[in-house]
Specification:
With 358 residues, the protein is an all-alpha fold. It is built from 18 helices and no strands.
């Protein structure tokens, strides 16, 4: 049946456009209607992807596809050549009717159609260009030459649309920049670093779009440059606060008459050594206070020991006993070596013993 149909004279043989391209379009439409990709059809039918493309793009004129390829395609889809050619004729008739209707339109009607097409593209959010309007309105170059007003309107509509698009872009950029500024301030309050990634997470805007905004990029660069100074300022503020805390803890210990030590200060402030040692000024205050307290304790102990030595010396002298360092230590009940821990006690004994020998 298909061979008899193909060998009979058919009306499309007088068509001016490429028949193979129209046939290929119908094959592609049928394939897509079945939910098949070129790759999937190639796997299932055994036809190569290149052969399928050649059929659908109508490359038969260039001898890139044979009649056998068309036959394989129809057999796989389960259609006949008559079905394919009938679909081609139906589409051709519809297009011809449209062309006849368009040729009868007046210049005013075409002007109205241009405005409608521009509005339609605007509503869809699509770019309003001469190409897109001419595609929708089927305007030809001949029409534009024939109707000068049409050409002027088309150019004006496209220019206005471009201007409106630039204004909208400007508004969107300003809104984006304001959003980024708020996000940066929020991050600063939280003590977090203002980076592209952090701003993207806070605003919900993709980093790709943020990098396209020159104001945003400049702001983020400024924050990047100021970050070291910000960290230095925050560290200094934190250090000042820690100094105040440590000094207050030292005053509390001194008022209570307790020993100023690292452990005591850690307990009062709730701070750890690892944190304090990271701040030089804080650690210096702590160390100097602990050392001063240690020296005071040592001086107190030495003064008390010297007083005991003086008392033991006076006792031995009053009893008429021999006054020696060893006898004094025995009198005090301390080891002889203990005496050398206190240089002032030794100096005192040397002076008194020398005076007694005179």
């Amino acid at each position: 049946m298909d061979f008899e149909f193909l060998l009979s004279p058919q009306p499309w043989e007088t068509m001016a456009c490429s028949l193979s391209q129209r046939i290929g379009e119908q094959f592609a439409i049928l394939r897509e209607a079945r939910g098949l990709t070129v790759q999937k059809m190639s796997r299932q039918s055994g036809m190569s992807e290149r052969k399928i493309d050649n059929v659908e793009f109508g490359y038969s004129i260039l001898a890139m596809v044979t009649f056998q390829s068309y036959l394989e395609y129809t057999m796989y889809l389960g259609v006949s050549f008559q079905d394919i050619f009938r679909r081609v004729l139906l589409q051709s008739g519809e297009n011809e009717a449209v062309r006849v209707d368009e040729l009868s339109l007046s210049e005013d009607a075409l002007l109205e159609r241009v405005l409608q097409a521009a509005q339609y593209l605007n509503d869809l959010g699509e770019p309003v260009t001469q190409k897109s309007i001419r595609r929708l309105t089927r305007l030809t170059h001949v029409r534009l030459i024939k109707y000068p007003r049409l050409k002027v309107l088309l150019e004006a509509v496209v220019k206005t649309a471009r201007s409106d698009r630039e204004k909208r872009k400007g508004i969107l950029k300003e809104e984006m920049f304001a959003s980024v500024q708020r996000a940066a301030q929020q991050l600063e309050v939280l003590g977090q670093r203002v980076t592209l990634k952090a701003v993207s997470e806070v605003t919900g805007l993709h980093s790709y779009h943020l990098k396209k905004n020159s104001q945003v990029v400049a702001l983020l660069n400024q924050y990047s440059l100021e970050y070291p100074r910000l960290m230095e300022r925050q560290t200094r503020q934190r250090e000042d606060g820690l100094v105040v805390e440590v000094e207050e803890a030292i005053r509390q210990l001194e008022q209570l008459g307790e020993t100023v030590s690292h452990v005591a200060i850690y307990k009062i402030t709730g701070l750890k050594r690892e944190e304090l040692i990271m701040h030089p000024r804080v650690w210096e205050v702590l160390q100097s206070s602990v050392e001063a307290s240690r020296q005071q304790r040592k001086k107190k102990q030495e003064d008390e020991f010297v007083a005991k030595v003086m008392a033991a010396f006076d006792q031995l002298e009053a009893l008429g006993e021999l006054v020696t360092r060893f006898n004094i230590c025995q009198k005090m009940g301390v080891p002889y070596s203990f005496l050398f821990k206190y240089p002032e006690a030794i100096s005192y004994l040397r002076r008194r013993i020398a005076e007694a020998k005179r």
